[in-house]
Amino acid sequence: MAKITWKQADGSAIEAEVADGTSLMEAAVANSVPGVIGECGGCLSCATCHVYVDETWLDKIGLADEFEDAMLDVAEAERREASRLSCQITASPALDGLVVHVPEV
């Protein structure tokens, strides 16, 4: 299990314990995190689960692969260096304490 925090643009936050192997998109939808829709269900075809990984976690999360990188180009919110699709980040003990920021659109 990993404790994940989704921070909103207004400063509020939602925290949840996420089972290993669960995508952050699935966990966000299950916990009603505003701004993370996951319209495609995690098929990497919509970019509605776009988040910004907190800077302190960038090295542990790694970079987007080529396909995710292309999908981030069509995300509604501004793309940043820390942009990732949360359907492509899987919870694990190594990510315990991870903080992601939900873009304001």
CATH-defined architecture: Roll
CATH topology, anyone?
Answer: Ubiquitin-like (UB roll)
Q: Which structural category do the helix and sheet elements fall into?
A: alpha+beta
> Rg to the nearest angstrom?
12 Å
* Intertermini distance: 30 Å
What characteristic shape results from the CA principal axes? globular
Give the helix level as a range of percent: 10-25%
The side-by-side strand order for the widest beta sheet comes to: 2-1-5-3-4
**Count of alpha and pi helical runs:** 3
Overview of this protein structure:
- The protein has 105 residues and is of the alpha+beta class.
- It has a single domain (2-101), classed as Ubiquitin-like (UB roll), CATH 3.10.20.30.
- Helices cover 17% and strands 21% of the residues.
- It is built from 3 helices and 5 strands, in the order ββαβααββ.
- It has helices at 24-30, 58-61, 66-72; strands at 2-7, 13-18, 50-53, 83-85, 99-101.
- The protein has a 5-stranded mixed sheet.
- A hairpin with a 5-residue loop joins strand 1 (2-7) and strand 2 (13-18).
- The longest helix has 7 residues, at 24-30.
- It is globular.
- The mean pLDDT is 96.
